[in-house]
Amino acid sequence: MLDEEEFAVVRNLYRESFRATKEFRLRYGVPIQCASIEQRFRPVREAYERITGIKDCHENAIMHHRIALYGEPCKRC
Asked: Cα separation of 66 and 2, whole Å?
């Protein structure tokens, strides 16, 4: 799970992956089928691995690994 600072890093890479792909496709007329998801989102997966040590997590799953999405920590733990 990612705290807010860690999530900000990953979220920015995720956004940039979308933005860069769109710009590349528009500039060169490349159809979406030719834009490899593996390559486009590799920076997201690599950053997540550096932060958590977990390798090869899907980029969409990573975006749900934000601690803040799940509420306040348990007061008893």
From this structure: 5
